[in-house]
Amino acid sequence: MDIIASNLQQQRAITEQLRREAAIQRITVSQAVADIVKYVTEHEAEDCLLVGFSSQKVNPFREKSSCSIL
Q1: Residue 28 and residue 35: Cα distance in Å, rounded?
Q2: What is the pLDDT of residue 59?
Q3: Helices (H), the chain
Q4: Which family does the similarity line name (predicted)?
């Protein structure tokens, strides 16, 4: 009996998830791409990978210096 109840509860959760996904407002791919391109062009001046870093200290991708004590 517990198996039936847990199965029913699982099916209800799946159904609820499918209802939430079906209610999502969708847009066309061309509109999504246009929005992405607009966002990227508006924020490209802030992108450190495109314009570089002001100094090496703020660069999170720099090689870490190793300290070796002999």
Answers
A1: 11
A2: 77
A3: 2-22, 29-43, 48-51
A4: Belongs to the G protein gamma family.
Other CB atoms within 10 Å distance of the CB of residue 11: 10
pTM of the model: 0.50
- DSSP conformational letter for 53: -
User: Residue 57: helix, strand or coil by DSSP?
Assistant: helix
> The tokens of 11 are what?
């099916």
For residue 24, what are its two tokens? Answer: 């999502």
Cβ neighbours of residue 44 closer than 8 Å, sequence gap 6 or more: 50, 51
Q: Is the per-residue pLDDT at 64 higher than 80?
A: no
Determine the distance from the C-alpha atom of residue 37 to the mean position of all C-alpha atoms in its chain, rounded to a whole number: 16
